[in-house]
Amino acid sequence: MNPELRRNLWLELTLHRVVALPVGLVLAFMLAYSWARDDPNGSLATTAVTLFIGFALWGAMHAGDAVIGEVRARTWDGQRMSAIEPWTMTWGKLVGAPAFAWLGALLCLFVFVLFSPSANTFGTMLFLLSGAVLVQALALNGSVVAARRGFVRNTSSIWIIVLAFMIVGPWMSVLTSSDADIVWWGRGWKRIDFMLVCTALFAGWAVFGAHRMLCEELRVRTLPWAWVAFIVYVASYIAGFGIRPNDTLAQQKNVVLIAGMIVSLAAMYPMLLSEVGGAMAVRRLLLRASNKEWRRLLQETPLWPVTLVLAAVFCLLTVGLAGSRPGPNDFFRAIVLAPLPLLLLAVRDAALFLFFAFARQPRRAQAAALFYLLLLYWLVPMLLRSVGLQGVSDLVLPPFWERPGLASAVAAVQAGAMVAAAVWRWRKNYGS
Amino acid sequence: MSVAIEVSSLLFEYPGVRALDDVSFTVAAGSVTALVGPNGAGKTTLLRCLAGLELPLAGSIEVAGLDVLEEPRSVHRRIGYLSDFYGLYDALTVRQCFAHAASAHGVGEDALTQAIERTAERLDLADLVHRRASELSRGQRQRVAIGQALIHDPQVLMLDEPASGLDPEARHALAQLFTRLSRDGMTLLVSSHILAELDEYSTDMLVMRNGRILEAKAVTDARTTRRVRIEFAREATDVGVQLAAIAGVRVVETTGREATIEIEGGADAQGEVLRSLVMAGLPVTSFAPERENLHESYLRTVSDDAKRGRPE
Does residue B304 belong to any structural domain of this protein? Predict the structure, then answer.
């Protein structure tokens, strides 16, 4: 038996809990039944779904505590020292840590299947299951990140679940906002089927992501292809909503490339602010490069530079294709000129982070970078505009939508200056 | 001599600090090596690198015949490691703690019970296997943690401050256990501040300071440094000259009826020197080899390093 799963089952499924939970649930369902005598089946099904969601979120809290709880208890080194393989560890934690919550959730699901008046009970059940796995896998990912960043307090798992909910919640609400069919990649799809497939696929990605994170924790070397594949997948997924039935192939390509660039840039920032890297990572990469250990270099490269390179590829393809064949749609024609300054600003922001990370005794490099990014993107431009200094404001936050040419020049100067500053600090503190 | 641990040109840095600086050494199979050095010398970082918990900047590490950086999961089946700041699953019983540790290190279900019982017996925990970890004393918890590290019978066992929290009796029992494990062929690498405790069972010593290995040597050699203290029945003239004339003898000091010398070679050489003294008509009443313990050996290594003027 999976040792990690067994350990969790020992901790989670005590005899008292296993007996008390069904009793509590039976009483809750009896209460729901007594309150709605006119539609008892509907009431039971609604109660079951509500309780299922509650159990799923509770389970997510346990999944969110799966790694940081071990760091707190100082048992994580022991786990890392074990011979347990990453997949075994992943599903051992994903199923085991919320095992008690899953027991409750599955009992609720059983009640839902028995009493649901819906025509698509099976589909709804699969959707609920996929959603629960998705949120819990995201929470497990969050737990690994929090452990690496040293956020291991008791309350950290609550923040993780809030973050997971903030990611999943809006997406779910968009998908469930109406009953109409969804148009995706120019074709109509039944909303419930679409939601089910999407949720299941994203749950699969989240589980795979947790596995890759645990690979890193367990010192199993991996190449970053999975991250690249995920970015391309998300870009294709989002692009699907922008592609209309009559779009030409060229228009479809434009949409995919723009989505790819936006997704890459959007993904770079969380990576930049959450990965453990900085001077030591750069030093290691330079050493690998000088020793021509290319495979190891790729294995040890943090994901944010990979994402930045991917964004650059999407950006150059977008600009290149747009230059030769602008689309008929005004919106796309406008934004296909904007990628260059966006990419340059991302380079500037990465260099800003490195500048702080290259301090001799770097402390809170990510927090410092985040603070200055808020100043550069929001506070300073707003202040300058509020006092009528629009021109100066454009030098801080270049107008990449309205004047992409000027914006590119300004962003290039900013990126160049910031890269030079980072290089200077590197040479000063780590050059020898 | 087969090698259990081979480290070559290991480099590890924290921002602004080189924690391990070109560290190279080997540890013989079946030896008990004391890893000693002051706080901040890099002992824990070295152990964590050997255990595959930290990724060094450069260098290679081979433990139990496997490359730690390439095959960390396989290496973990062959090694055990007790961290300085270990934790236990408080809600589990000692038996469950052992069962989890054994399974997690690849012990099959069929061998699980035997492994648990053997470990409990080794650590004198047989009466406590049904108690929860949270109900144990600090010393008992320490023994459970050591049991978890060795339950899978690793080829190499690495322990960071294993005796902290143990009373003198338990420390002595632990020393006996380490000696037994070593006799059974297990290689032990033990880091500790308490040199007197290491003295009881170590066969080799690895001295670290400022991220560097100052010295790697067999403690048995250090213990048998042939420094001999001689006492005479009466004050003899030219004792120093007569002693210095004997081949293989270096005179350290002579004071009246006493002399301290260093002899090159082993017990046979000592016997030869004693015979020469008697033959020369010197009234020898006492001929006592001085034993240098681990503490003295360590201090001498550190002092020699300072004299060589290496940067601190």
Answer: no
Q: Is A341 part of a structural domain of the chain?
A: no
Interface contact A220-B73, CB threshold 8 A = yes
The mean predicted confidence, pLDDT, of chain B is 85
What's the structural domain count of chain B? 2
Alpha carbons within 13 A on the beta-carbon side of B47: 30
Nearest CB neighbour to B148, from listed A11, A78, A359: A78
pLDDT digits (tens, 9 = 90+) for B142-174: 889 999 999 999 999 999 988 877 788 888 888
Q: Which residue of B has its CA nearest to A280?
A: B15
How close, in Å, is residue B49 to chain A by CA atoms?
11
Q: How many domains does chain A have?
A: 1
Q: What span, in angstroms and rounded, lies between the C-alpha atoms of B226 and B261?
A: 8
Whether residue B235 sits in one domain with residue B171: no
B164 and B274 belong to one structural domain: no
* Domain CATH for B234: 3.30.70
Q: Closest by alpha carbon to A84, among B107, B73, B99, B98?
A: B73
Please tell me the least confidently modeled range out of A168-177, A254-263, B41-50: A168-177
B81 lies in the same domain as B144: yes
Q: Is residue A405 part of a domain?
A: no
Does a structural domain hold residue A263? no
| pLDDT tens string A38-69 | 788 888 888 999 999 999 999 998 998 899 99
Q: Which residues of A touch B87 (CB under 8 A)?
A: 70, 73-75, 78
Q: B213 and B246 share a domain?
A: no
Same domain, B218 and B235: no
Residue-level pLDDT at A157: 65
Cβ under 8 Å to A: B residues 56-75: 57-58, 69-70, 72-74
- Chain B residues with CB under 8 Å of A219 CB are 52-53, 55, 69, 72-73
- Strand locations in A257-410, DSSP E? none
What was the pLDDT predicted at B286? Answer: 87
B86 part of contact set with chain A, CB < 8 Å: yes
Task: Over range B43-47, report the average pLDDT.
Answer: 93
**Beta strand B204-209 pairing with B212-218:** antiparallel
Domain that holds residue A115: 1-177+193-220
Q: Which domain holds residue B278?
A: 225-290
The 3-state DSSP composition of chain A as helix, strand, coil percent (nearest 5) reads: 80, 0, 20
Which residues have CB under 8 Å from A100's CB, separation 6+? Answer: A12, A13, A17, A21, A62
Write down the ipTM of this complex: 0.84
Nearest CA in chain A to B97: A7
Contact B51 A81 (CB under 8 A): yes
Tokens representing B157?
Answer: 């066992």
CA–CA gap between residue A209 and residue A203 (Å, rounded): 10
Residues B243 and B159 in one domain: no
Read off the tokens for A363. 């402390």
Model's pTM, two decimal places? 0.84
Is residue A25 domain-resident?
A: yes
Note whether B131 and B236 are same-domain residues. no
Most confident of A242-251, A317-326, B51-60: B51-60
In a domain, residue B295? The reply is no
Note whether B183 and B244 are same-domain residues: no
Residue B168 within a domain: yes
Band (pLDDT 50/70/90 cuts) for residue B312 is: very low
Phi and psi, residue B89, nearest 5°? -80, 100
pLDDT by residue (tens digit) across B179-235? 888 888 899 999 987 777 777 788 888 889 888 988 887 776 544 556 788 888 887
Q: How far apart are CA B80 and CA B157, in angstroms?
A: 5
**Is B265 within a domain?**
yes
Q: Chain A residue closest to B106 (CA)?
A: A83
